[in-house]
Amino acid sequence: MPIKKVLKLFKLLHRTRQEVFKNDTRALEAARQKINEEFRNNKDETSEEKINELLKIASDVEVILRTSVIQAVHTDSDKIVLIPRKDLLQDNTPYLDKPSKKQES
User: Fold this and answer.
1) What's the total number of domains in the chain?
2) d(CA 29, CA 21)
3) Orientation of helix 48-68 relative to helix 3-20, angle to 10°
4) Banded model confidence at residue 104, pLDDT cuts 50, 70, 90
5) 46 lies in which domain range?
6) pTM, whole model, 2 decimals?
7) Which DSSP helix (H) or strand (E) runs through 79?
């Protein structure tokens, strides 16, 4: 198994962690420790099949972090402000009760 693939994914997870948990030192540190721990625990793995399985899991985790995690900040005892990243925001399509029929050309 090429070590380059493992290192590339390791670095990608850390870059994603820095982006997703920006300005949240506790989450940044917890994610850093978890990423390092998981890679350290499996550093001596020699089975190519197991390594590919671990890489798939790590890749899936990166995608989930990048596409599903939104930061939130308590502003009052009963208020939370969400801080979505720009890459999570999508154009909103307005809801219509009765969609207009497309004109055929």
Assistant:
1) 1
2) 9
3) 20
4) low
5) 2-88
6) 0.75
7) strand 79-83
